[in-house]
Amino acid sequence: MTVQWKGVMPAVTTKFNDQDELDLEAFKVNIQAQLDAGVHGIILGGTLGEASTLSELEKRTLVRETVSFVKGAVPVIINIAEQSTKAAIDLARMAEEDGASGLMMLPPMRYKADDRETVTYFRKVAQSTPLPIMIYNNPVDYGIEVTLDMFEELLNDCPNIQAVKESTRDISNINRIRNRFGDRLAILCGVDTLALESLLIGADGWVAGLVCAFPAETVAIYELSKAGKIKEAIDIYRWFLPLLELDINTKLVQNIKLAEVATRIGTENVREPRLPLAGEERKKVLGIIDQAIKNRPLLPDYKNL
C-alpha cells in the first residue's frame, strides 16, 4: 500500500495483559477507535509503543495483526530503533515480509553516532529496502540531530526517504526544511504541543500521542486546520493542551495509557521497568484527564468539510 505522508498518524501504544504478554484484543479495540475517527495511518513500535521492551517476535506479531485487521484502510508503519545497522536492516526486511507499508526510523540507539556514521546508517538501511521511510528527528530525546546538510546527502542517494517526523522543538525548522527541499520531504510534526502551529505553517501531518486516547479530537484539529477553519481548530486545541502536555514527559507511556483507560479504549498495563503511575503523580494526571473529559468539546462534522 502506498504511503501518503500526511494527516494524523497515531504512534499507538502496545497493549499487554496481566501476564505481560501482548493483549491483541485490547490492541484492536484501540485500532478500531483510530480507524473510526479517520486517522490516516498507524505507527507501531515507537517510543509510545514501548519499542525498547518488545521482542522481535512481538514486533512481527504487531505488524501482521495490524495489517490483517485494518485490511488496507490505512498504511501500517513500523518503527526501527535498533542497536546496529545489521539489526535495522533485518527488521526492515521482516517488516516488508509481514506486510508493513513503510518505516519510521530513529538514528542508531545508545551509541551517539557522529554525522558521517548517522548518514551511513540511514543510507544502508534505506538502500536495503523498497519501503518508504520517515526519519524521526528528535535530538532532544535521542541526542542526535539529522541536520539539513545530512538530509541533503540522504535525499540524493535514497529516493525512498520521503518524510521527516520533525521533533526538534524548533518550529522554524519546518520552514527551513520547506525552503531547502520543497515538497521532496514531507513534514509531520512529532510534538503534540506544537502540532497545530506546525500544521498552520505548512506541516503535512501529525504523528500524534494523545490521539491514542482522544482520536476524534486529534483528527478534527487536523481536518479543521486544513479546511481553513482555524478558529474552530484553535478552540479544540486549547481544550486539548493540558492533555497534550502529558506527551512531553518521561512518563508519557503511563500518562497516555491512563487516558486510554478513561476513554475506554485501552488498558493501563505497561512493561517493566515501567510501572503504572502511583500516589500524587497519578492523582495529578487523573485530575487533568478528568477535567478534560468533563469539558470535552462537541465536535463539528469534521469528516465532511
UniProtKB/TrEMBL annotation:
Molecular function terms, GO-annotated: 4-hydroxy-tetrahydrodipicolinate synthase activity; 5-dehydro-4-deoxyglucarate dehydratase activity; N-acetylneuraminate lyase activity
Main enzyme class: lyase
Top-level taxon of origin: Bacteria
Lyase as UniProt keyword: yes
Keywords in alphabetical order: Lyase
Keyword Hydrolase set for record: no
Matches recorded under InterPro entries: Aldolase_TIM, DapA-like
One protein family per Pfam: DHDPS
Entry's EC annotation: 4.1.3.3, 4.2.1.41, 4.3.3.7
Family membership: Belongs to the DapA family.
PANTHER family for the chain: DIHYDRODIPICOLINATE SYNTHASE (PTHR12128:SF72)
Protein's name in the database: Dihydrodipicolinate synthase family protein
